[in-house]
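debug: dumping io for the single-chain case to check the tokenizer round-trip. Nothing else runs in this session.
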Amino acid sequence: DEELLKSIQATVVRVEGDCEQLSYVTGSLQDDHRQHQKDIEALFRSLEGLEKKADKEDLLLLKVDKAALGSKVSCAHFDASMESLEERLRELLRRVSGQEQRWQEAQQRFSDALDSKLDRLELGPFQKQLEDTWAKIIKDLKDELSVEIDDAAGIKQQLLVPYKCLSCDRHLNMQVPG
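debug: decoded output
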């Protein structure tokens, strides 16, 4: 019985030592857990601060983007306008070159007809007149292509110069109707 009692006492002493050791480890784990919990809370607070700051920066960037967007032209609209302009310029160039080719043909026909009917002394002034006329026509055509058209809402004065737009009161260069 004494041996059994001694073995039970030894076991109780071991269990008490193990309990003390477990108590120490548990206390250490609780301290570590509290420290980790504080660190996690600090991380959450800093994360919330960063989210607020990021939201403010995103909002500011969004406002800047919206403001810049108003002054931008869409690529599709710009490309379509440029293609339309390029097509019109090609058409005008084709017309001018067609006119020039017809002028050259007409000049050649006149030259051939005049060579057979008139002498060289009479051809000089006529040729000079034709060339001057052709140069004037080409210049007028080019001037007409480069003229900017004023589209106004209306004009204040019907027949007196200078004309003014009814909506914005700017001066206009217009021909008198009729």
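debug: round-trip ok. The first strand starts at residue 163 and ends at 164.
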